[in-house]
Design a protein that fits this description.
The protein is of the alpha/beta class. The protein contains eight helices and nine strands.
Length: 248
């Protein structure tokens, strides 16, 4: 096991009107450089967890620390949501450069690097288009590149491909996996899609009843055969179904 980038210990989070906490004593370490997929049904707390790691929400109780940075500060973080959230009046290049306008990103954004990312990951031909001229898959790629262009150490993704049709989704999953491996940042993706988890993860953490980790699987990507994928899919599906019934 490598260096821990993020550690959540006994994390509790509740919302008004709910009888049970969304996160009810969650313990989870996220290792530096890994691709972690947090899998869970609706209501399992996976998106809440992502928002807390991103600093967009806070735990009611428990701690979140950053051992890689001596627990003092959240590593530089990029976030991608279910919708691309591109500014319609800006071109692709201008949307990607928008992050560089914020003080927190200004020293990390480099327009030359952003253009290199567009070229390296097949988007250079879209640089001067506006969002209305993009397909859904193209727009979501731009959203990912925008998050990456500020050189994050931690990339968080909240079901970014869930609204796309299956063929485009599979292509973008492969594209995201290549991007994460090539750039080497720590990646956390939340999803309810078992096949997406198997396609991308180095580790899968299944959230179940009360927003706690029910089980984890470590995937050996180098030796990941079709038979192993099918065996794991069957195992994860059974545990996922059980956790869904428990949550219900």
């Amino acid at each position: 096991m490598g260096t821990v980038a993020v550690r959540v210990a006994q994390g509790y989070k509740s919302f008004p009107g709910l009888t049970e906490p969304v996160l009810g004593g969650l313990d989870l370490d996220i290792d530096t450089g890994e691709f972690l997929v947090v899998l869970g049904s609706s209501g399992s707390g996976k998106s809440t967890l992502l928002r807390i790691v991103a600093g967009l929400d806070q735990l009611d109780r428990g701690t979140i620390t950053w051992p890689e940075t001596d627990d003092a500060a959240r590593p530089h973080t990029g976030v991608v949501f279910q919708q691309p959230l591109l500014m319609p009046w800006l071109t692709v290049r201008e949307n990607i450069g928008f992050g560089g306008r914020f003080a927190a990103h200004r020293d990390r954004f480099d327009a030359v690097y952003a253009d290199e990312l567009l070229d390296a990951f097949g988007l250079a031909g879209l640089a001067d288009r506006y969002p209305e001229q993009l397909s859904g898959g193209q727009a979501q790629r731009v959203a990912v590149i925008r998050a990456v262009a500020v050189r994050p150490r931690l990339l968080l993704l909240d079901e970014p491909f869930s609204a796309l049709d299956p063929a485009i989704r599979a292509d973008l999953q492969d594209w995201l996996g290549d991007l994460a491996r090539e750039l080497g940042f720590t990646t956390v993706l939340v999803t309810h899609d078992i096949d997406e988890a198997l396609r991308l993860a180095g580790r899968i953490a299944l959230l179940g009843t009360g927003g706690r980790v029910q089980q984890q699987w470590h995937l050996d990507r180098a030796g990941f055969t079709d038979s192993e994928r099918q065996r794991l899919r069957t195992e994860i599906f059974a545990r996922y179904r059980d956790s869904t019934l428990e949550t219900a």
